[in-house]
């Protein structure tokens, strides 16, 4: 893992945020499981549907973004990228803003959050989701039952006016700057400009393809942004390591009882115990966390033994969807 004095990799911020959200959700699921066993859970009480792993991935970005908002510029520190020569270059806060919004159909999330807002739960402004939300339960059922977040805007005008609002410029898993989609946008706009120019030659200058966003300042902004960032494409992103204290302060109290640290159990039992702790992990997550040195063939044998005892670990909605 990248090590820079006084700074931590963006990937670490993201990983801790996802872990915190999973912890919160597994506690909620444990509550339902307990009520199911004692017969106090009714169909009306239980959230229905699959667990959407995307909710965890996207909301974790919002947690990190919210953390950065709250600490940005403190003591003159900001997130930065690391150049090839090891030097740092500061980044703008907007580049970290997640591009996904709240799904209009997710009334369970919107309504529950509206209640929190009405009751003045949020002591400072929080954009969609963040650190303060982690201390509330309003979102738990929605994350279990609904696809809370939608994709980014597909509107071409929005993309040209400010690509940062529509296109991901950060690879959160790798913790690095990623400009592949911005490059595609700039190339496409250049091609569209050529089409518009050709249409003008046959008196179709009013064609809908022609707009300020295809041949004016908006297109130039996307190209200028690419030219400014392209030398740093793929460079790792870091943030002040002290900023992690807020996240680890929440996480440290939950480290007790982590089944990944108990080496005395048979492999199948360790898999089952870890699933009880975190039902959102993928099969690959189980292997990397519990048995990183074990061969795939051996792990598959233990996984089958665990699945025979508890088929729940194979259920759709518990696994991350293939892209």
Record keyword descriptors for this entry.
mainly alpha, two-stranded antiparallel ribbon
Instruction: Describe the largest sheet.
Output: 4 strands, antiparallel
Q: Structurally, how many domains make up the residues?
A: 3
Rg, alpha carbons: 23 Å
**Helix fraction?**
40-55%
Number of helices: 13
How large a portion of the residues is in β-strands, by DSSP E?
5-15%
Low-confidence stretches: 205-213, 259-264, 316-323
Outline type:
globular
Give me the secondary-structure category. Answer: mainly alpha
Elements, N to C (H/E)? EHHEEHHHHEEHHHEHHHH
Total number of strands: 6
Distance between the termini: 25 Å
Strand order, sheet with most strands: 1-6-2-3
Arithmetic mean pLDDT: 80
Write the layout of secondary structure elements.
Elements: E1 7-9, H1 10-38, H2 53-71, E2 80-82, E3 88-90, H3 107-118, H4 131-134, H5 140-145, H6 156-161, E4 170-171, E5 176-177, H7 180-200, H8 212-215, H9 217-229, E6 237-240, H10 244-251, H11 267-277, H12 283-290, H13 296-309
Antiparallel strand pairs: 1-6, 2-3, 2-6, 4-5
